[in-house]
């Protein structure tokens, strides 16, 4: 199979629409990462996502729809707080989990009675979703456990000859996957942290919980269970307070002829003062936006990436640390 990268225009959207309606897969950009999309009603197409990615069959998917799609066709019981949050944050990097009407393929939710739905804000994503006018099941468009893709080239590197089309919408600006919010209870509960933080949600609706998974429990959201976001080289993760230990390992690795880079934010980069740096930037938004891009860059340069966690650990950094800790998990 030849994989094409096409800029988003009327011609490429029509090609994408025909592929989706024929049960094929199409990678498309969102404001967070690139997604690998299939018609959520088509059981064969949804299962093809798992096959192309090598994704575990118990790891549920998120359904993407355009901003005018009628969610009542797919889900039951949208609570008032979810409607308020929708007005505030959607379209945007927020996925909401509702009771499902079981209209989509059972493979989407991996046997759960819920459905995760997202309305991305990326202009190209909206054009694609509007053109197909179907709910599109889509995890990140990469090989399972590898670093999530934020450019069309990243998708091509992982999925060349496995999918027919990548819609090129430029580099994703958000950088980490959407916040996943369970909206099936009386209080919203974060299943996966992202760019929409617990504090932001609580400010709008008064309260927000953060879910703590239990041992042996079925996965309720993508990104909760498995090793994820991992570069193809060795990694070590240090806390901000362990900067000197990180530098010591860096210098020792250089002495031993190991190609090594330090991944950190701008504040740490100025303190650590080494040559081989993958600088994530200064602000929370910059750090999130650059994380996957720098991990991908690093795996092409280094035998070892030494990551130093940001000093700030709340807000958007909760989502960043979730990804960084999984990327460096042994």
Question: What does it look like?
Answer:
By secondary structure, the chain is of the alpha/beta class. The chain has two domains: 4-210, DHBP synthase (Alpha-Beta Complex); 234-327, Rossmann fold. The protein has eleven helices and 16 strands. Strands 1, 2, 3, 4, 5, 6, 7, 8, 9, 10, 11 and 12 form a twelve-stranded mixed beta sheet that branches. The chain has a four-stranded parallel beta sheet with strand order 13-16-14-15, with helices on both faces. α1 (10-21) crosses α5 (123-132) and α10 (284-301) packs parallel to α11. The model has no long low-confidence stretch (mean pLDDT 95).
At the third CATH level, what is the topology name of the largest domain?
A: DHBP synthase
The number of distinct helices, counting runs of at least 4 residues, comes to 11
The quaternary state of the protein chains shown equals single chain
In the CATH hierarchy, what is the superfamily of the largest domain?
DHBP synthase
Which CATH architecture of the largest domain would you pick?
Answer: Alpha-Beta Complex
Would you identify the regions where 5 or more consecutive residues have pLDDT less than 50?
A: none
Query: How many strands appear in the DSSP assignment?
Result: 16
Structural domain tally = 2
Top CATH class of the largest domain: Alpha Beta
Q: What summary fits the major beta sheet?
A: 12 strands, mixed
Q: What is the CA-atom radius of gyration, in angstroms? A: 20 Å
Helix content, binned percent? 25-40%
Separation of the first and last Cα atoms: 34 Å
Helix-strand makeup class: alpha/beta
In percent terms, what proportion of residues is strand?
15-25%
Spatial shape: globular
Average pLDDT level: 95
């Amino acid at each position: 199979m030849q994989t094409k990268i096409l800029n988003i225009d009327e011609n490429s959207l029509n090609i994408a629409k025909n592929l989706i309606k024929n049960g094929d897969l199409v990678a498309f950009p969102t404001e967070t990462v690139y997604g690998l999309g299939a018609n959520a009603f088509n059981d064969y197409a949804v299962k093809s996502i798992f096959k192309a990615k090598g994704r575990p069959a118990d790891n549920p998917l998120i359904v993407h729809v355009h901003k005018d799609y009628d969610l009542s066709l797919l889900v039951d019981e949208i609570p008032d707080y979810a409607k308020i949050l929708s007005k505030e944050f959607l379209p945007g990097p927020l996925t909401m989990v509702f009771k499902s009407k079981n209209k989509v393929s059972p493979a989407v939710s991996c046997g759960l009675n819920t459905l995760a739905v997202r309305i991305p804000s990326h202009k190209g994503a909206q054009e694609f979703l509007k053109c197909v006018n179907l709910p599109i099941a889509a995890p990140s468009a990469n090989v399972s456990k590898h670093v999530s893709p934020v450019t069309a080239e990243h998708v091509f590197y992982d999925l060349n000859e496995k999918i027919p089309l990548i819609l090129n919408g430029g580099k994703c600006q958000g950088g980490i996957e959407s916040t996943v919010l369970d909206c099936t209870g009386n209080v919203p509960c974060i299943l996966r942290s992202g760019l929409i933080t617990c504090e932001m949600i609580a400010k709008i609706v008064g309260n927000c919980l953060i879910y703590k998974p239990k041992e042996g429990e079925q996965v309720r959201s993508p990104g909760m269970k498995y090793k994820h976001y991992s570069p193809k080289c060795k990694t070590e993760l240090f806390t901000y307070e362990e900067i000197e230990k990180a530098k010591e390992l860096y210098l020792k690795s250089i002495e031993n002829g190991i190609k090594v880079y330090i991944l950190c934010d701008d504040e740490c980069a100025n303190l650590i003062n080494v040559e081989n740096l993958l600088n994530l930037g200064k602000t929370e938004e910059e750090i999130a936006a650059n994380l996957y891009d720098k991990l991908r860059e690093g795996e092409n340069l280094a035998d070892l990436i030494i990551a130093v966690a940001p000093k700030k650990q709340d807000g958007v950094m909760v989502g960043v640390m979730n990804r960084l800790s999984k990327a460096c998990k042994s």
